[in-house]
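Troubleshooting: if your tokenizer reports a length mismatch, compare your output against this known-good record of 118 residues.
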Amino acid sequence: VQLQASGGGLVQAGGSLRLSCAASVNIVSINVMAWYRQAPGYQRELVARIGSSRTRNYAESVKGRFTISKDNAKNIMYLQMNSLKPEDTAVYYCNALIQDLTGSKDYWGQGTQVTVSS
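Known-good structure output:
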């Protein structure tokens, strides 16, 4: 499974960005897809995740501002980020968790940089 993240960039505080994560497989087969982020000097943290039934979870820090979604027909997951803050600056990674009879495995994209200026 290969994941390709894109859509990062430089934006002013209060602005918006939409990240995309294109998968090399049918994402219907993926149990959970998620976005994580890692800022310099900090551990990687979960931002949002979406299950196969489209159940969504968000970090408290992004609730009401970020929306995770996916397009099964295009095999793409999105993260719409609104009202961006400087503290949202980080490298954003997409993640896929696949569970089968042999166990579970995580797959990661290469990351896309998001920089929010004050």
